[in-house]
Design a protein that fits this description.
The protein has helices at 15-31, 42-51, 56-68, 85-93, and strands spanning 39-41, 72-74, 80-83. It is mainly α and 95 residues long. The chain has a domain at 36-93. The longest helix is centred in the N-terminal third of the chain and has 17 residues, at 15-31.
């Protein structure tokens, strides 16, 4: 399963597209009921992303970008992610 905030970018990626996809993801997570500082299962993040039209490399790059922006953090347990207040704010701006 994905670990969005542990992923690292091996190559330079298109920041514009990754950023747009990250905003799309954050907006979809907010619409799905995600709240700041609450844990969300990585599987749920993936489900929401796929419903928003993101998968494969687009999803991976969006997750990396969101982590770099401080919008998402790895949870205390494997398989969990925390959406930050900044992530919720970014998602609301894209809603």
């Amino acid at each position: 399963m994905l670990s969005p905030c542990l992923a690292t970018s091996g190559e330079a990626m298109s920041g514009d597209l990754a950023g747009a996809n990250a905003l799309l993801l954050m907006g979809a997570l907010v619409k799905s009921g995600a709240q700041a500082d609450f844990l969300i299962a990585n599987a749920r993040v993936t489900d929401v992303a796929v419903q928003a039209g993101l998968d494969g490399d687009e999803l991976d790059e969006a997750l990396i970008y969101a982590g770099e922006q401080g919008w998402m953090e790895t949870g205390e347990s494997d398989g969990w992610t925390r959406i930050t207040k900044a992530g919720i704010t970014a998602g609301r701006g894209n809603g």
